[in-house]
Amino acid sequence: MTQKVPLWTKDFILICLANLLIFTSFYFLLPTLPVFVTDVLRGDESNVGYIIGVLSLTAVMVRPLSGYMLDAVGRKKVLFAALAAFCLAMGAYTFVTSLTLLFLLRFLHGLSWGFTTTGAGTVASDIVPPARRGEGMGYYGLSNTWPWPWDQPGIDYFT
Hints:
It is a multi-pass membrane protein. It is found in: Cell membrane. It comes from Desulforamulus profundi. The chain crosses the membrane at residues 12-36, 48-66, 78-105. The relative contact order is 0.18. The longest helix is centred in the N-terminal third of the chain and has 31 residues, at 10-40. This protein has one domain (25-148): Up-down Bundle (Growth Hormone, Chain: A). Helices cover 82% and strands 0% of the residues. It has helices at residues 10-40, 45-72, 75-92, 99-127, 133-145, 147-158. The chain is mainly α. The protein contains six helices and no strands.
C-alpha cells in the first residue's frame, strides 16, 4: 500500500493563510477606495480610475523583477520583506490626506502587491509535494478568491 505524501503541512497552511489575508485586505479596498476618493478627498471619477489603476499597473511592471529577486536573493527573504512592505502600505492608508499622497501610496502598495503575490505563489509551489502539485496549487488558488464573497458583509459591518 502506497502512502500519500502529506499536503497540509504547517508551511503550506501558513502560506495559504498569509495569501488569504493579503487578498482579504486587497478586496476590502476595492469597494471602499472609490468612496474615499470622491467623498473624503473630493476627487472625481477620473481620479478614482487613476488611483485604482496605478496599483495594478505597478504590480504588473514589477513582477519580472520580483521573480528574478526571488531566485537571486532567496524566496523567503524577498517574501518576508514584501509582506512587511505590504502591511506598512495597508497601515499607511489611515494617514492619507490628499489625492497626491494616495496616488504615491497606491504606487508603493503596487510594488509590494507585485512582490507579495509573486513571492507567495512561488513559495507555495516550492512547498507543495511534486506528486500533489495540481491539487495543492488548486487549494492555494482558493485563498485568492475565497475572501471575495466574505468581504462585502465585513465591509457592511464595519461601515
